[in-house]
Amino acid sequence: MxxxxxxxxxxxxxxxxxxAKTERPELMKxxxxxxxxxxxxxxxxxxxxxxxxxxxxxxxLLNERGVELHSPTEDINTTTPSxxxxxxxxxxxxxxxxxxxxxxxxxxxxxxxxxGRVGRRSKTLAxxxxxxxxxxxxxxxxxxxxxAAELEVSRRTLWRALSQEADT
Length: 168
Fold this sequence. Notes:
Elements: H1 25-32, E1 39-41, H2 45-48, H3 52-64, E2 68-71, E3 76-77, H4 81-114, H5 127-138, H6 144-151, H7 155-167
Parallel strand pairs: 1-2
Antiparallel strand pairs: 2-3
Helix pairs in contact: 6-7
């Protein structure tokens, strides 16, 4: 947001989901609202789209409506031939970077699985803490909300741990 302040944007669309997700309501609002002669300013091209095809499609859609695209970080302005060339080069590099990152993550996950690790977060509550929680609740020393605060976990984490125990 700080990088967009010098551009004096009149309307700001701030995404709340990953650029890789297909459903992006703020992007849909952005694409529905600009009129001919408007300029869409994005801090970085990978904020607009993560896949090269998405980025090109979005840019073509904006151009068909007479809307310019400007990215101050990459100094790209699609109204000029050199800006268009720079846009395509940076779009290809962004796609390459994303693919490399995905490749590294997948390699790390495979290596972890070979070592017997499963791809999920570790338990927040140690077995000793869970035993302590059961005892304190059984004897009425704490209510669940107080106990969660005492164990420094969220209420949901405590509820989930206790309910998994009850299910088994």
